[in-house]
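Sample A.
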Amino acid sequence: MKRYFKKLIGVILIIANVMSSVSMSFAATTAGQEMRTQVLYLADIITNDNFMNENVTRGEFARMIVKASKFKDSVSYYDSITAFSDVDSNNEFAPFIKIATNEGYMTSYLGGLFKPNDYVTYKDLTRGCLALLGYENADFTGSQIAGRYELFCSLKMNDNIDKTINEFVTKKDCVNGIYNTFKANKKGGNSAYGPSVFTNLSVNKDGDLNATGLTKTKLEGPFILKRGEAFNLAIPFDITTANIFINGTSQTLEQTMRELNNIGYLVYYYNKTTKTIYVYKEGTTLESSTLVRKGYVNHIYYSASDTITPTRVEIDLSYYTLGSSEVKFAFSYTGTIHVGDQIIFIYTKNETTGDEDDSTDGDIETEGTITNAYIYNLKY
């Protein structure tokens, strides 16, 4: 009973920690530009970080604003005929333009024109972002432009944007405007807009976005890349055009390969939609409560009631519980990992001291639970 109670308390504490934690990639209390950009990558609102300081066309902005709306999953490329004579049905932004104008996120011009190649102004950005929150023309008296700008600023949606109302905005400005919109409350409500559209997005206690849940649902991994292996063959898209982050910091492919050669291995996740690769070095991984390590297997232990399925391992004189059935099989008699092997493993660390394990030699304190394990076998 005592052991069960201690385990129960441990589980509760771990759950509480996970619920309140922020991904290693998003750890800053005040969101920096890289963090803001990553959030919009994961949400598929922007597709790359190229040309962040260049102006955005109206066609490009239509895609951004719709991808940030409740219609993000309702875009039909088979229904791309618009009412505008200057927007061909083959235009890649046509379905987004149709939704953006129908929903009031953007306006058109006299004569049935949309002008998709013209640049977006700050007043266009304020209109689109406020429309996402539910604001309409009737909410503003007098000058619509001035009224929207005043509300935009009062809601602090202008953070990190330094433009006058008629100036063209850059991709960076749009990222900041939409990110700030995600944090703002919906019209007439007291809850943030972002989590209402992206259910795996939340606002942390510091008022910034926690994209841990969004990251998990969008990423594939973890995978291991070892020195001597071809990174381009392991990624299902053109790696030369990928956005790469190492421990949350943007890096080039060349910098990533240098890290690989220096360390010997890297853990990585990727997002096929945004063509983004998240790389982690030893000691870090996707969540603050999860770590990656390398070490030698000293012993493999089995429970007293089941001598076929391993339950715990000793690696470099520290003990770890085995998690999934796949991990247990890897350490079993017929698995791929044996005593004496050097392995790379990912584990969820214990948040309490003295977590116990049922094994043949009594209660043992463990460092955490292994979720993934790989034979190292370094290549040169």
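Sample B.
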Amino acid sequence: MTFKSILIIAAMATSAGTVSASAADPAMGFFVTSKGMGKGADLGGLEGADAHCTALAEAVGTTGRTWKAYLSTQEEGKRGVSARKRIGAGPWYNALGELIAANEDELHLNPNITGRTAITEYGTRVNGVGDSPNKHDILTGSMADGMAYFPWEEGDKTCSNWTSSGEGSAQVGHHDRHGGGNLSWNSAHGSRGCSIEALQGSGGAGLFYCFAAD
């Protein structure tokens, strides 16, 4: 068989829908939650948020992965848990197989996170600036480098470590990288409070980012 014949057979196989395993889309490892947990920024702590990520991922058929919410915490007198240290080493792909970041450094320096790529576990876009209602405020409790705030005296950045649906505030990012010059995907501004009404007041819905940490 000539080399030309091999190429023709390969082309016919491709046109017939035969795709090798190596050409398959990579597994989803990143998404914005399609829905909050119903209590504003009270997520049941990190454990509750992680469980929500897992449940949403498994509901769309992505099983066997270790899911972590991109959230930081605060502790008095020392630095709390940092979001960037929870989510593994990457790479991370969205539900459509698009690369979000190859590793931790790229994620925090030059990620492929925009309104088009920061999608839900269903592969659907999240409302942003110009949509009604706007839902681009994504809970993170983090500084731009993904680290937790320190010290506590800087104020509440995590709605009491994701247990408050009333008083407090949470640092949020903008998944669409728009909004009054606040272009950061993970640290744009503080919320007006921790209730769902307060989060909605500045363009949020209690959503957060989920990453596969395995």
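B remarks: DSSP finds five helices and eight strands in the chain. The helical segments are 3-15, 45-59, 104-109, 159-162, 196-201.
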